Amino acid sequence: MVDVPAVAVELIELLAVVAGAGAASAIGVLLERFGLDAVTGGDLVLGAWAVGMGLLALYVGVVALGYEQALPRIRRLAAGE
After folding, report:
1. d(C-alpha 81, C-alpha 39), whole Å
2. How many C-beta atoms lie closer than 10 Å to residue 30's C-beta?
3. Which pLDDT does position 15 carry in this prediction?
4. Which of 50, 55, 53 is nearest to 36 (CA)?
5. What is the CA radius of gyration of the chain?
6. What 3-state DSSP class applies to 5?
7. Which spans in the chain are helix H?
């Protein structure tokens, strides 16, 4: 079995978290734009749903993955821990 250094594992995990945060944030922005287009087009129910889901996706991307997961990992790597 190959021993992978702990730093390599941490970098792979960080890359996955950053990619997930970026994907969730991009989906959130797209849902927000779609929701606003639906509301201005007259479909209030679909627009409200899309805006709500967009806000949820933005929360997951920015706060849950970005601020609470990625930022502490970056700080730990920068400090050399």
Report:
1. 49
2. 13
3. 96
4. 50
5. 18
6. coil
7. 6-40, 44-58, 71-79
**Which pair of tokens denotes residue 31?**
């849902």
**What is the structure's pLDDT at 26?**
98
What's residue 4's pLDDT? 79
**Residue 48 in tokens:** 């409200």
Token digits of residue 8: 């390599």
Q: At what angle do helices 71-79 and 6-40 cross, to 10 degrees?
A: 150
Residue carrying the six token digits 């920015």: 62
Greatest Cα-to-Cα distance within the chain, rounded to the nearest angstrom = 60
Q: How far apart are CA 44 and CA 36, in angstroms?
A: 9
Residue 81 CA to residue 40 CA, distance in Å, equals 51
